[in-house]
Amino acid sequence: MKKQWTLPAILLVEIGLYFLCIQFNIKLFEDMFSWPTLLILFGIAFYIHSAMEREPHHLLPATLFTGIGFHFLIGPTLSFWPGDLIAFLWITSIGLFFQAIKTKTGIFPSLVLLFIGLFLYFLSSIMEFLRVFEHVVKVAENYWPFLFILLGVYLLFVRKR
Asked: Is 126 a member of any domain?
């Protein structure tokens, strides 16, 4: 039988430790006393509860809480870190992926979100790569009728059956 008190117990211990650190001014890292830290603690509580009670459906909220907490806590300090939309897509994808591993179902939505996030992350690079072909497209736009003529001549005279 699943224990219903595990998650609230873990949350109470974490919140108690958090406020104890505030009271005694114990700072383990910069910006420790902020709301993203609380999100990370809630996520860790869900991870622990999921592991202790073998409930894989808690992996998604655990990843969402932890990931969003890290996004707002350390994301601004990393130059390569994506914006909010892409980060949320990746975090949700990772959460769905963790849940899919445990339940052995539902990996497709995880992959779809991951690829959408990757596409959006590299969109500017993709668009710049496609600009290389801009000249080719303009030439083809002007001279595409000649392609039909050449193809027709080839089919009439060169290719024999």
From this structure: no
Print the domain residue range for 71.
6-121
Overall number of domains in the chain: 1
In percent, how much of the chain has pLDDT > 90?
Answer: 49
Residue 161's pLDDT band (boundaries 50, 70, 90)?
A: low
Q: What is the C-alpha separation between 22 and 99, in angstroms, rounded?
A: 34
In a domain, 30, yes or no: yes
Angle at 41 between CA 55 and CA 116, to 5 degrees: 70
- Kindly report the pTM of this predicted structure: 0.75
Going 124 to 127 to 131 to 133, the CA torsion angle's sign is positive
Tokens describing residue 84: 């909010």
Q: Within a domain: residue 108?
A: yes
Distance CA 12, CA 78 (A): 32
Q: Does 133 reside within a domain?
A: no
Return d(Cα 80, Cα 76) in angstroms, integer: 9
Query: CA nearest 57: which of 8, 102, 12, 5?
Result: 102
Direct distance between the N- and C-terminal alpha carbons of the chain, in angstroms, rounded to an integer: 77
